[in-house]
Amino acid sequence: MEITRLKQYLYPVFIISVFIFSIGLLTNALIYCEWHDFDIFYNSAKAALAGKSIYVISGPHHLPFWYLPWTAWFYIPFAVWPRAFALILYKCVTILCTICTVQYLTHYYNPNFKFLDKILILSLIIPMTLQLFILGQMDYILLALIVIIMYAIEQKKDVLAGVLFPLLWIKPHLLIVFTLFAFWRSGKRTVLISLATSAFMLGIESILSPSWPLDMLNLLRGGAEKTISVGFITLPILLGFPENLVGTANLSITIPLIILAILIVWKFRSLPTFPLLSLALAASLFCAPRAYAYDLTLLIPVIIWLTAYKFSSTFWQWIAAAAIPFLTGYSPYAYLLTLLIFLLAIQKSHNALLSDPSTLHKKLS
Fold it and tell me: What pTM was estimated for this model as a whole?
């Protein structure tokens, strides 16, 4: 009895301590970091507004914008403002996307999810993805879009899913397995609408800037020539292989990983939409040809699925999610977190199918 009462007191103290520590990390990142990656997107949107080529080199680190054209358009609502205000607005949108995503997914899996448990998740997410806040990356906005599309697929809102899907191709290399299974689960109509929307936007950019494909390819070619040995969190880097900036240096390893990831997720294709696509997200990161520590954001849906039902006995997974990247200095060893979560998700999927496969089929229908 006394031990139980002690746990009841210690748990809130633990959460408050983690929250204060994480807020300190976040505050430092939001105030003192230069947000170089934000400048890439911001300056490309500025170029689009000025009618210039969006494929520009930005900032003191000479970072390239090598994304699809509508990525620049996506940032136009920020680019209409001076950089200082745009950055504040971007930070607010990023944090709002984080909170809304966690709130929706925890409520989806467990309507009785405790408030303190949500605070702990949000607190541990900060050290897990601190690089994102340091550099000004977009992964939380991308994750919010992914969750909306998962919702649209589950609710059979084909038009909504199809129109939004091209926005996910901001980072297609991170979503290879997810894209395949999202299209498979949603059907032909979503695929056709996505392709039509993409073709329409590419047509607009071709009218505005006919040279954009060559401009983009030139930047990608430059990235393929730059070899690095650190920075990525991929299996080839973890094994000691050098990698280039576009992630094409180790296709002999990456392609078998992609095939393996697809086969694993296919085995559990009868899962309901949210667990299936969360597993596919983790599988996508498992085999990604190019991923940084801030891309660990894509593991959030599957970790919520893994921990939502028995949080008191599974929240150690969130502690691991925060500790592994943080303690390894967001180095290639952070890939160990992807391996851990993917293996746990495979086990969870296997147990879910064994426990009551008939229930899963009812949910699908």
Answer: 0.91
